Amino acid sequence: MTEVFDYFAQVELPTPTLGDDEVTQLFAASFGIEVDLRSLGSQQDQNFRVFPAGSSEPLGVLKLSNPVFSEGEIEMQDAAASLVAERDPELRIPKIVTGPHGPMSTWWDSSEGRIHARVIENISGRTLMGSDYLSPAVVERMGELSARVSAALADFTHPASGRILQWDLRYAARVVDTLLPGEPDADVRSFVERAVREALATLDTVSSDLPMQAGHFDITDDNILRPAPGHLPDAVIDFGDVAESWRVGELAVTLSSVMHHDGADVTSALPAIRAFHARRPLDENEIVALWPLVVLRGAVLVLSGRAQVRLDEDNDYASTALEREFRVLERAAAAPVAVVTELIRDALGRRPVAPAPWRADPVLALPDTRVDLDAGTLSPLNDEGAWLRPSTLDDAALRALDLGAGAVVLPAWQPVLTGSTVRPRNEAATIPTGVTLWLAAAAPLAPGAVTLSDGVLTWTDGDDAIRLTGLPTDADGTSLPARTRLFAQRHPAAGPIPPAMTTPEFASAWRRVAGDPTGALGLGPTASRTSSADVLDRRHRVLAEVQEHYYSTPPQMERGWREHLADVDGRVYLDMVNNVASVGHAHPHVVAAATRQMHLLNTNSRFHYNAIAEYAERIAAKLPDELDTVFFVNSGSEATDLAVRLAMASTGRPDIVAMREAYHGWTYASDAISTSIADNPNALTTRPDWVHTVAAANAFRGEHRGAGASRYAPEAVAVIDALAAEGRAPAGFICESYFGNAGGVALPDGYLRDVYAAVRRHGGIAIADEVQVGFGRLGEWFWGFEQQGAVPDVVAVAKSIGGGHPIGAVITRRDIADRYRSGGYFFSSTGGSPVSAVIGMAVLDVIENDDLPGNAYTVGRHLKRRLEALGEEHPIVGRVHGSGLYLGLEFVRDRETLEPATAETEAICSRLLELGVIMQPTGDYQNVLKIKPPMVLTQGSADYFVDALARVLDTGW
Questions:
Q1: Interior angle at CA 58, CA 55 and CA 59, nearest 5
Q2: Nearest Cα to Cα of residue 99 among 80, 117, 74
Q3: Mean pLDDT estimate for the chain
Q4: Number of Cβ atoms within 10 Å of the Cβ of 850
Q5: Rounded distance, CA 68 to CA 934, Å?
Q6: SS3 category, 743
Q7: Is the pLDDT of residue 312 over 80?
Q8: Alpha carbons 926 and 250: distance in angstroms, whole number
Q9: Residue 51 has what pLDDT?
Q10: Which of 71, 110, 413, 599 has the smallest number of Cβ neighbours within 10 A?
Q11: Radius of gyration of the CA atoms of the chain, in A
Q12: Is the distance from CB of 919 to CB of 912 less than 8 angstroms?
């Protein structure tokens, strides 16, 4: 019979502590190589990265196994690793290194006794060690790796596989019983006891039926590696815990290592569970056992780590792990096991069990004259920012009572926006687990088993209970008071009691565990609602695929207010990308103006009405005197298209010069002059022959950088002169007057002055595309061309001028506009319609009356300074571009080569979404955060954004 380790026969496992000199001597003697060492951490072994003497290239990892482990166990570890490598060759698995004397694996007679030494391949890459953020894609890959190793070892057997390790979750209860009495911290003891008690109560119901097999049982963030460069792990190391145990334990161990990472909670583990299940389907008993095993793993980590540190004070590896090990247990035990199990069922698509109906008589007879409140995202109750006021719900309820309602009810399990704030997604608890109730008159409770303590009344019927909170301190337990906000929850009499509010991810699970309180109040069941995923499926079915949306799995936004957006789940996001909503979402002045005009008239712009004339006058007044004639259209694409046509019509020429890397729109003409490869990878090779391009005048990453950017203007002038010399003098030159598509890069000083002069010298027209940056967004300048000290002949503007309504405008000189008549007449049905014109004037009112350019200047300067400070700490920040509230934060992999950090930028945007911030990339390489929020952005909101971004840069993406 093979001798194997039994943890319970030797609980204390001091690690080997051989000195470097002894190790190098023994290494040379046994393996024939002189080496340098770099110590690596381990809880119970001693590990080194070894290098041939004087070399920086690692030879491998020297593993000095704890002397308590037998030769058979070490052979088993190597055999298991070899089998996984053979059966799944795409996984990178370390093998024993072969040296001058053969495989580098032997026993040493050391100063601390007989110790096994072996050199394992140094697998290149980076572990996930530490507590930085793990993206859902990385967590999913962790579950996949766990399943692949489990599948490879499904039929692996070895005489040593019956060893008894403290990490084998079959023995977790024994480990806890062994170590808990020695834990000196009473609070730690109490917390571990509570968590373990609940976990074992569930595990014991299925443990005897759990499938067994050999496994790695330590596929954790420390023992998987991702390639460099690379994001997703593809290597598994350290087969030191190979044994035979419960199959589901492989996944439980992996999940536990997710829990301590930044921002992680129970829901963070779901991608790994789904990935494991896809390759190694979990049976019903394993689903029941999974989360109890995660909790038990956390308990074992906490007690073992603390015991190891008390035994071995110099073990830095064990000491530094204490905080994250406690975080594993704390987060794993944060939700009841029963609730997490239901959450897992949802994630795996198991058919949910409907909550058990309330079987007793109602606890309370509500009046027939009942009013149901809707506090969700779409409710008028939340209009004009009322969702931010703490009193909104109570005010609405008491108003309904005053109008004759006998009772007012806010249903359970429906999303509530009222009272929400911006916060990370996993902290946005927006679903009430109970019914909120206001009564017009005091109402008696039905007889029953009632307990009353500290204003909490519990009415019990068998295994079911109703919990009522909000009662006054003098309540007697026989009736409920009038005109008082009350909250009624249902829960199993023996617990658990749900939180008053839960997150959308947890709502269905909590509802099945706790039950629906509506029946106990004589109400009908809460209606189900269409899921956001169903709406997205409908969108994909009926819209063209090319009409894309932000994010792969986007939140369903249904309300905006100022610089905030709210989704259907009641979650609130900070909108840092929406320059369309220039004056903020749902501005009351704009809404009122639009509503009033809709009551009066809306028709096409060929009718005679005041609004179109008044609006045109007000826009023209914002421009230099010579730009006095206005065309109205519906979008920026139409505006730039018309601007190009004006140039052609006024000159009788077809050729246009445009700056490369720009985006001007999707119509034929505006697309033709757009050369951003981010919008069209073939942009430069598919241009019609009437489009000629000049270099993107980007002083940061363009052809000429820094002081050399002064060369852009002469080179552009040379292109224009050359065209004229060929007999193809251009009709016009067009570019963004502040390079918005690149992320708000200012053009080199004097660029527009010189290029405009050149095109005019040859009879052409200078066109300023102000669609993104115009109308006060730059703060210091109302128009981008003002920064250049130049005046164009034609200005195209949209986005900001409508505040979210489709309005575009082209403003030019009268003589240029008159020449367009030679090609016929111009007509845009809804361009400048009564409603559009009135909305445009209301937007302009807000910009002027609230001094939004001044706000853009002040808040923008503060925001830019804070972003620049991030650049001092994080090398990925290449440059902060822009002015006012049109900024660009450019990410690079190398500040010298300026290699774009494209994948990183996309991942950063996804992480920001989790933290409640809407952000998107821009630029030809999609490596610039385009920071262009509504101009009402407050300094507090700017700080929230930078703090969230700092967290991402600090903890990963």
A1: 100
A2: 117
A3: 95
A4: 16
A5: 65
A6: coil
A7: no
A8: 39
A9: 97
A10: 599
A11: 34
A12: yes
The Cα 171–Cα 164 span in angstroms is 8
**pLDDT above 60 (res 1):** no
pLDDT given at position 426: 81
Please state the φ and ψ torsions of residue 392, each to the nearest 5 degrees: -55, -45
Residue 823: band (very low, low, confident or very high) from pLDDT cuts 50, 70, 90: low
For the chain, give the number of residues: 957
E strands, 430-517, in order: 431-432, 434-439, 443-444, 449-453, 456-461, 464-469, 479-480, 486-492, 501-502
CA distance 639 to 801: 12
As given in the structure block, the two tokens for residue 904 are 């990183």
Give pLDDT, residue 930.
94
Kind and range of the H or E run holding 118: strand 113-120
Cross-strand partners of 450: 459
Is residue 284 over pLDDT 90?
yes
Q: Report residue 542 as tokens.
A: 């009926």
DSSP secondary structure letters along 682-734: TTTTS--TTEEEE----TTTSSS-GGGGGGHHHHHHHHHHHHHHTT---SEEE
- Structure confidence by residue, pLDDT tens digits, 380-392: 999 999 999 999 9
Token representation of residue 394? 């109570």
What are 129's two structure tokens?
């060690």
pLDDT tens, residue by residue, 707-747:
999 999 999 999 999 999 999 999 999 999 999 888 899 99
Q: How many CB atoms lie within 10 A of CB 29?
A: 9
Q: Which of 13-17, 619-623, 879-883 is least confident?
A: 13-17
The continuous run of DSSP H or E covering 401 comes out as: helix 392-402
Query: What mean pLDDT do residues 445-463 have?
Result: 91
The full 3-state SS of 183-241, as one line of letters, equals CCCHHHHHHHHHHHHHHHHHHCCCHHHCCEEEECCCCCCCCEEECCCCCCCCEECCCCC
Tens digits of residue pLDDT in 106-116: 999 999 999 99
Residue 178 to residue 659: CA distance in whole angstroms:
73
325 neighbors 302 (Cβ within 8 angstroms): yes
Give me the helices (H) in 652-680, please.
Answer: 668-672
pLDDT at position 59 is 96
pLDDT 10s digits, 200-246: 999 999 999 999 999 999 999 999 999 988 889 999 999 999 999 99
Assessment of whether the complete model's pTM goes beyond 0.85 = yes
SS3 of residue 341 by DSSP: helix
Nearest alpha-carbon partner for 590 in 939, 936, 828, 941 = 936
Are 660 and 625 in contact by the 8 Å Cβ rule? The answer is no
Report which DSSP code applies to 43.
S
- Average pLDDT rounded to a whole number, residues 855-866: 98
Run of H or E including 592: helix 588-600
| Helices and strands: H and E segment counts in the chain | 25, 38
DSSP string of 525-562, one letter each residue: PPPP---HHHHHHHHHHHS-TTS--SSSS---EEEEEB
Q: Which amino acid is at 259?
A: M
**Residue-level pLDDT at 422:** 87
Cα gap 511→527, rounded to integer Å: 13
Residue 684 has what pLDDT?
Answer: 81
Residue 248 CB-density burial (10 A; 0-12 exposed, 13-18 middle, 19+ buried) = buried
Q: What are phi and psi of 450, to 5 degrees?
A: -115, 135
Sort 85 into a burial class: Cβ within 10 Å, 0-12 / 13-18 / 19+: middle
Residues 6+ apart with CB under 8 A from 767: 640, 643, 644, 647, 732, 733, 734, 735, 792, 793, 794, 795, 796
Distance CA 635, CA 630 (A): 14
Matching residue, tokens 């400070």: 869
Predicted local distance difference test score (pLDDT) of residue 455: 86
